[in-house]
Design a protein that fits this description.
1 helix, 48% strand, globular, 32 strands, mainly beta, four-stranded antiparallel sheet
């Protein structure tokens, strides 16, 4: 069933869906012909004000389900999530900039406040910035200096101070922790000591890591991607664009391409061998050029969180499917480091954003 209202756009009801889907006026101004192809595809022609033809559009309806969680809601205080991870017991952890504690949601929905900070501690550490799981707990990096390990079995917390900041972290091939501050640090829990592998000074900021064999890909400020060889400890810098943007996230697709989320230039697909690159932006269907996280799913699609919802890129076809409020997505603006794919590799993922949690 389809009906059109001039003020809101084209509304569609499909049996089996729990809501009415609305195509706003910007997408469908004045429909002239409609044709359903099955229950998940609608073709329509439309025209603009004054009767100018606007062409033919194919609309594909995908019944993805978005579930929203906002634990410990506070009046007039948004839940600004900057880190998400699951532990080995099925608990979901959230790091929120506006909370003085870590949030854990157990497998049965029980919520806990972990490592509650006093006012002085919160000012000194600021907020939790990065998560890293291990076999019996997880590591939590706070923005200023502090790295802690939380033991799931005992609840005990170990504290370390490996560097100036903890922007992001990952494991190396031997299980040691690589940390980004104003360069690259390697921390060994067995000795409790950290070693500086690279010092970048204050010229660039380092936002995200992706380890590929002995190469550490580092997303930096000022449109730079650093290719850091952990064996030789030599960096190579790749300038993505002529502008100034941050590289917020990195993932690798099955065909070996690097996918980079940038803060203003959309998503870049980079061939690490040839250096060839292509960009996906609002001009090609992305919801916003300010992107935060990129994740591949089991079908080879690349999921992108942005400043205006979520987009899904199909690399084979180049088509982009976007999700917003009309698809049941209540979060509009997302954050860096706030994504996590479930172990089964399905298109279900936890993504954190501003105001409405995850």
């Amino acid at each position: 069933m389809v009906f059109y209202r001039h003020g809101t756009g084209l509304s569609i009801w499909i049996p089996g869906y729990e809501r009415i889907i609305t195509l706003p006026r910007g997408v469908c101004e004045m429909p002239t012909e409609l044709f359903f192809y099955g229950s998940s595809m609608l073709w329509y022609s439309h025209q603009r004000a004054g009767g100018t033809p606007a062409g033919v559009v194919k609309a594909v309806f995908t019944p993805y389900d978005f579930r929203h969680i906002n634990p410990f809601p506070q009046e007039n205080n948004d839940l600004n999530v900057f880190g998400i991870i699951t532990d080995t017991k099925g608990g979901l952890w959230l790091a929120a900039r506006d909370r003085n504690y870590l949030i854990r949601i157990g497998g049965k929905g029980k919520t806990e406040r972990i490592n509650i900070l006093g006012e002085k501690e919160q000012k000194e550490l600021w907020h939790p910035r990065a998560f890293l799981p291990d076999s019996n707990g997880l590591w939590v990096g706070y923005y200023w200096e502090k790295l802690i390990h939380y033991d799931l079995s005992t609840g005990l917390i170990e504290e370390y101070n490996p560097g100036k900041t903890v922007n992001t972290m990952c494991y190396d091939s031997e299980g040691r922790i690589l940390i980004a501050d104003h360069g690259v640090i390697r921390f060994d829990r067995a000795t409790g000591k950290s070693e500086r592998l690279y010092s970048g000074g204050d010229t660039l900021n380092y936002f995200t890591f992706h380890l590929q064999d002995s190469i550490l890909w580092v997303g930096c400020s000022h449109s730079y991607l650093m290719k850091f060889n952990l064996v030789s400890r030599k960096p190579e810098f790749i300038k993505l664009t002529g502008g100034i943007t941050n590289i917020e996230d990195i993932c690798v697709s099955e065909d070996g391409f690097l996918w980079l989320a940038t803060l203003g230039s959309g998503v870049c697909r980079l061939d690490p061998v040839t250096g060839d690159r292509s960009f996906y932006t609002t001009a090609t269907g992305l919801t916003n050029n300010t992107t935060y996280c990129v994740m591949p799913d089991s079908r080879g699609n690349i999921w992108v969180s942005t400043n205006s919802g979520i987009s899904v890129i199909n690399p084979a076809s180049g088509l982009i499917r976007s999700f917003g409020e009309n698809d049941g997505l209540m979060i509009h603006e997302f954050n860096s480091d706030a994504s996590w794919m479930t172990d089964d590799g399905k298109v279900s993922a936890w993504r954190g954003g501003r105001s409405r949690g995850v």
